[in-house]
Amino acid sequence: MERYNVKQEVTDKYSLRGRVFNKLREDILNGKYAENEELKEVAIGEEMGVSRTPVREAFRQLELEGLIQIIPNKGAYVTGITEKDVMDIYMIRSLLEGLCAKWATEHITPEQLEEMEENVYLARFHAQKGHWDQMAQLDNRFHEVMYEACSSKILEHELKDFHAYVLRVRKKTLSNGERGLKSNEEHTQILEAIKAGDGELAQTLANRHMINAYENMVKNGLYEAYHPGQERDGEEGAGCPGEKKSI
């Protein structure tokens, strides 16, 4: 396997420690590392082409985010994101996305508004063609533009982190054509509220959009993302987060 040399990413805006951290976080969230798997400083440093110091610093930040646990005199072990975490993230996101949409109504620029309009138009086109990968990319970008438009770097940072935490499950559930179409319809409604300057309506619609997204995950892939190859015991209560299983 070709080595990933993080030093070659000259366009990355983060420090060396930050680039190592972001790569490790992405790998954990994408399922490269299993729950309770030990992360070895030397092996990761060699794989990324860096010394142990930025790896050790990245470990500390990953522990602060709850993605790994560092046990003194033993090592660093993956905890990851659990089913319960996904539910918590979406309930929190539903409130923060609503606030974001409300603030975006007040601060959005003509350029951002134009990009959001183009986004929903392109998403509608790709939905008609069944291009679900493009739909997922456009879905991500719609939210990113709204985060940027809210004019709060704190809120933008928090929402982008939450967005990244559940990307693995979102990719799976957005491949469902029915949800892809419905999601874009909801984006269109949010956009129209923002264009009309109705912050309260935009807030309500964005809040409901997140709850709908989570309910869709429960129906279409959340369980399977944590229990690959296993069938549900029954539909009743199947979508409720249970034991902690890592992504």
Q: Helical region count?
A: 11
Helix content: 55-70%
Uncertain parts: 8-13, 234-247
What structural class do you assign from the helix and strand content? mainly alpha
Write out the CATH superfamily name of the largest domain: GntR ligand-binding domain-like
CATH class label of the largest domain: Mainly Alpha
Record field, number of beta strands: 3
Average per-residue pLDDT, rounded, comes to 82
Strand content: under 5%
For the largest sheet, list the strands in their spatial order. Answer: 1-3-2
CATH topology of the largest domain: Four Helix Bundle (Hemerythrin (Met), subunit A)
Task: Explain what you see.
The radius of gyration is 19 Å and the shape is elongated. The protein folds into 2 domains: 6-78, Orthogonal Bundle (Arc Repressor Mutant, subunit A), CATH 1.10.10; 83-226, Four Helix Bundle (Hemerythrin (Met), subunit A). It has 11 helices and 3 strands; from the N terminus they run H-E-H-H-E-E-H-H-H-H-H-H-H-H. Residues 8-13 and 234-247 have low confidence and may be disordered. The protein has helices at 16-29, 41-48, 52-64, 83-107, 110-129, 132-149, 153-165, 167-174, 177-195, 199-219, 222-226, and strands at residues 38-39, 68-71, 75-78. Strands 1-3-2 form a 3-stranded antiparallel β-sheet. Helix 5 runs antiparallel to helix 6 (132-149). 66% of the residues lie in helices and 4% in strands. With 247 residues, it is mainly α.
